[in-house]
Amino acid sequence: MKGTMIIDGRKIDFDGEKNILEVVRKAGISLPTFCYHSELSIYGACRMCMVEDKWGNTFASCSQLPKDGMEVFTNTPKVQKYRKNILEMILANHDRDCTACDRTGKCQLQELAVRFGIKDIRFDEIEKSLPIDKSSLSIVRNPNKCILCGDCVRVCEEVQGVGALSFAHRGSSMTVSAAFDRDIAEVNCINCGQCRAVCPTGAIIIKKENHKVWEAIHNKRKRVIAQVAPAVRVALGEEFGLEPGEITIGKIVAALKTIGIHEVYDTAFAADMTVIEESKEFVERLTKGENLPLFTSCCPGWVKFAENKFPDMVDNISTCKSPQQMFGAVIKEYYKKIDKEEDKETILISVMPCTAKKAEAAREEFEYNGVKDVDIVITTQELALLIKEAGIIFEQLEEESFDMPFGLASGSGIIFGATGGVTEAVVTRLLKDKPDHFAKDLLFSDVRGMENLKEASFDVDGKEVKVAIVHGLKVANDLINQIKAGERYYDFVEVMACPGGCIAGGGQPVPMDTAMRKERAKGLYKLDRTSHIKSSEKNPLVMSLFEDLLKDNHELLHVHKKSGADA
Amino acid sequence: MLTLEMKDTIDEVVMKHGSKQSSIITILQEIQGNYRYLPEEVLEYIANKMDITPSKIYGIATFYENFSLEPKGKYVIKICDGTACHVRKSIPILNALHKELGLSKDKQTTDDLMFTVETVSCLGACGLAPVLNINEKVYGKMTPESTVELLNKLREEI
């Protein structure tokens, strides 16, 4: 719908905005919200976005369509009073232990309390003392800090199609809880952390492992190595006042070195290995016509989702380990002998945009004779905290480059962090004539971008290969059902659990929106363009590893048993 | 554990009402009619069958007072504590029942699963206040003494 609204006396044109709230924001007024996220359904529970019309009626602007000629006011005495009242009531019902809270300084509730000058809460604090759920490897849920906005419930169901959380009970005893009030680790949660990314307060936070990093660093017997995933380098800057998409990899390496990590490598190096192994597997399956479509295996949220919901499709998932786990397997093998000689123990820390990577690293198939591929997984948010804990002034860091030999990556390995990246890398590997950047922009235009489902077909050695790319598991769920029903056919399907791919993972700085995701993805494509090595098999260090360490050791790179599957 | 027989019963109920999500409340009511409560395994089985998440079914089952996730007694005694019954002394009746059966506000069902005692807001029979209701049968103008007598009669029936 098109038209003009009058907001606080100013004429504002609208064209397709889905509610008055969006029009008000267009007018440059930041109406407060807890329960409104443009990507989720409209819930209208928090009532913070109330406006008043010229007849004195108040209503939630998120839940009303804009109308031509409509006049609303955003700061009348009435709405100001209501907003304050609501905030006071939420605060009375909220665990206000702000100093010890993870979200302090970044909590939306705290921010609005400051913004609206709440100094005195007229209602008694209701102490709920509900148990804190620490069962998950990825997140911690504290229902005492929950304001019942329902953001986590809706993201889990509408975007991820998981529905691990829901509202339970009624009235003043209402809570957000997993089925039968079970611990979140006991239900179908896939550890993606999107609930944490939308939570406005400290009710859902990342399970921190920073203390383990410090313990490793302070132990002289440990050789501490870090790998940094592609998506971290285009988002960490946001924690230090930089724009989304700004590339900070030099500073990240420098910071990790300053903290005391001995060697810092690039997960994109392992992504190059993944590309080579996965394309090989793909060609084999294409030739044999077996287990098609091939589903990618890089995303642990997706793998767990598939195991829960589509156990019959698990064989279609690539047997390749994810880059994180490939990297771990290679590093541990590489240092096995050296560690023995030097009487040391290698500890591998992953720096990831993802909360599910914590759960992935803990899976039993990624441990050999008591040695884990990856020992500690910290997210982008935890890295930012680590830098702050160490007192490092991020702005003043002198950039450093990755260590060798595992620090060199092709552009293909780097774009793994954005939706479509894995597909682009695998297809590039399979094409005989490698496209230059201009040709790539054209060839992969259908593969890039933020549409939830992207389709493309490529000519590989005269054969048409059909691919699909999905991000957000709800869309993946629907697509798989269509594939199973024979309504669609693909040879290759890339699935990323989080909308936008790893750049918008559950461990990334918040809040996130589509514009931000695009900027972060742009950062990765920029790195691809400026990379010296265009495709994975041109990475000389990866190739020499295949000739040497991995010559008779290919099983290091593959998963042999997926728990949950029968095999 | 869910027995084969239970699965058959549930399948039948779901088939009868259709597995569209809007039928869920009717289905739960009928299932509860069968088992006198909603066992966890049953809810999980229904969730799977109807493609509703277990968390959502749990939400529905805990939202409505009428649904119970705890086993209820063979006799469910509902004491009306609406305004009319309350002023005509329904609470002493509740206390008498609690005392007689060893129950309380937090423990509503006897260990032998024979009796459940709960309060309801209004049974719509204010002219007969104070009223109680045992398995759909209404008893009016009760006193603590007549209630205990009634209870003893029920005990003899068992």
From TrEMBL, chain A:
<dbReference type="GO" id="GO:0051537">
    <property type="term" value="F:2 iron, 2 sulfur cluster binding"/>
</dbReference>
<keyword id="KW-0520">NAD</keyword>
<feature type="domain" description="4Fe-4S His(Cys)3-ligated-type">
    <location>
        <begin position="78"/>
        <end position="117"/>
    </location>
</feature>
<dbReference type="InterPro" id="IPR017896">
    <property type="entry name" value="4Fe4S_Fe-S-bd"/>
</dbReference>
<keyword id="KW-0004">4Fe-4S</keyword>
<comment type="similarity">
    <text>Belongs to the complex I 75 kDa subunit family.</text>
</comment>
<keyword id="KW-0001">2Fe-2S</keyword>
<dbReference type="Pfam" id="PF10588">
    <property type="entry name" value="NADH-G_4Fe-4S_3"/>
</dbReference>
<dbReference type="InterPro" id="IPR036991">
    <property type="entry name" value="Fe_hydrogenase_ssu_sf"/>
</dbReference>
<keyword id="KW-1278">Translocase</keyword>
<dbReference type="GO" id="GO:0016020">
    <property type="term" value="C:membrane"/>
</dbReference>
<dbReference type="GO" id="GO:0005506">
    <property type="term" value="F:iron ion binding"/>
</dbReference>
<dbReference type="Pfam" id="PF12838">
    <property type="entry name" value="Fer4_7"/>
</dbReference>
<dbReference type="InterPro" id="IPR004108">
    <property type="entry name" value="Fe_hydrogenase_lsu_C"/>
</dbReference>
<keyword id="KW-0408">Iron</keyword>
<dbReference type="InterPro" id="IPR036010">
    <property type="entry name" value="2Fe-2S_ferredoxin-like_sf"/>
</dbReference>
<keyword id="KW-0472">Membrane</keyword>
<dbReference type="GO" id="GO:0008901">
    <property type="term" value="F:ferredoxin hydrogenase activity"/>
</dbReference>
<dbReference type="Pfam" id="PF13510">
    <property type="entry name" value="Fer2_4"/>
</dbReference>
<dbReference type="InterPro" id="IPR017900">
    <property type="entry name" value="4Fe4S_Fe_S_CS"/>
</dbReference>
<keyword id="KW-0411">Iron-sulfur</keyword>
<dbReference type="InterPro" id="IPR009016">
    <property type="entry name" value="Fe_hydrogenase"/>
</dbReference>
TrEMBL record, chain B:
<feature type="binding site">
    <location>
        <position position="126"/>
    </location>
    <ligand>
        <name>[2Fe-2S] cluster</name>
    </ligand>
</feature>
<dbReference type="InterPro" id="IPR028431">
    <property type="entry name" value="NADP_DH_HndA-like"/>
</dbReference>
<keyword id="KW-0479">Metal-binding</keyword>
<dbReference type="GO" id="GO:0016491">
    <property type="term" value="F:oxidoreductase activity"/>
</dbReference>
<feature type="binding site">
    <location>
        <position position="80"/>
    </location>
    <ligand>
        <name>[2Fe-2S] cluster</name>
    </ligand>
</feature>
<keyword id="KW-0408">Iron</keyword>
<feature type="binding site">
    <location>
        <position position="85"/>
    </location>
    <ligand>
        <name>[2Fe-2S] cluster</name>
    </ligand>
</feature>
<dbReference type="InterPro" id="IPR002023">
    <property type="entry name" value="NuoE-like"/>
</dbReference>
<protein>
    <submittedName>
        <fullName>NAD(P)H-dependent oxidoreductase subunit E</fullName>
    </submittedName>
</protein>
<dbReference type="GO" id="GO:0046872">
    <property type="term" value="F:metal ion binding"/>
</dbReference>
<dbReference type="Pfam" id="PF01257">
    <property type="entry name" value="2Fe-2S_thioredx"/>
</dbReference>
<keyword id="KW-0411">Iron-sulfur</keyword>
<dbReference type="GO" id="GO:0051537">
    <property type="term" value="F:2 iron, 2 sulfur cluster binding"/>
</dbReference>
<dbReference type="InterPro" id="IPR036249">
    <property type="entry name" value="Thioredoxin-like_sf"/>
</dbReference>
<dbReference type="InterPro" id="IPR042128">
    <property type="entry name" value="NuoE_dom"/>
</dbReference>
<feature type="binding site">
    <location>
        <position position="122"/>
    </location>
    <ligand>
        <name>[2Fe-2S] cluster</name>
    </ligand>
</feature>
<comment type="similarity">
    <text>Belongs to the complex I 24 kDa subunit family.</text>
</comment>
<keyword id="KW-0001">2Fe-2S</keyword>
<dbReference type="InterPro" id="IPR041921">
    <property type="entry name" value="NuoE_N"/>
</dbReference>
